Structure formats: C-alpha cells, structure tokens
Amino acid sequence: MMLFFASLLRICLNAFSSRRTTLSENSVLREENEILLQRVGKQRVHLSSYDRFVFVVLNRAADVKHRLTLVKPETVLAWQRTLIRRFWTFEHRPANRGRKSVDTDINNLILSMKDDNLLWGVKRIQGELLKLDLSLSTKTIRKILQSFRRRGKIRSSLRGFWNHRGI
Known about the structure:
The protein is an all-alpha fold. It is built from eight helices and no strands.
C-alpha cells in the first residue's frame, strides 16, 4: 500500500512540473524497470492490477502509451476502457457466493435413508450421517428432503404406507 502512495505522489509531482513530458516518460521507464527487476528469470512478464493502474493513470496524465516498451498502446487503452467500464457499471468479477452445494451422492444417500425408513426424521438422518463422518445441519437435510418432495421422489406423509405393506 505504501508503494502505491509513493508512486502516486511521484506521478502527481511529475505531472505538475514544467517538464511534464520528460518526467512522465521517466516515470514510465522507472515503473517498467521496477517490474522487470521483480520478475527476473521469468519467461513472461505478468502485470499486476496495480501496474496496469499506474500505466492507465500515466497515460491519462501525459499520453505515454506510445513510449511504453513492455506493452502495446492498444493494451493500455483496453485497460483504460475496462477500468472506466468497471467504475461506472460497478462490474466486478463474479464471486462464488454462498456455500458449496451438497454432492449428489450424499443427496441420494439421504433419499435412500428416507425411503427405507419412512418414520425417520431430519434429526435421525443427521445422526446416521454423523456415523458415516458426514456432517450436515438439520436445515440442509430438511431442504434436501423438501426438494425431493417437490419433485415427487418421496411421499409427504405416511398415508398409504400400511396399504403397501399389506397390513
């Protein structure tokens, strides 16, 4: 973070001086040298988002896109367009939100437990799963059973149970 503010201060001081073009070019070359020194021995130079941001700011301040040696001018303009689009549309990378879904094998195990033992409730199924070292909350098991009921895979009550048994 400190490096960011130092670079930003350096850019601001260079942008407001009388030799604006020369200083901005020096800033670009200094930044490129820092990037290359950090990545000595690697085959391809991968720029971080901070480095891209610095190049976009320098390009906006002093039109340095034609003086760059690491990247093409079109690349800097593409970064600039992306930065502006993300700022104004609040576009962010899609995050994997929520918890991981339960495997289908575990779902099928819960279904088979319920089908084989109609009198078992959510707590009993949770206890049997704990014996198999599968830890699920009662709420999760209840939601899985409700989804199976909506799809018609298990009965919602014991009606008709005794008739199928021949009792």
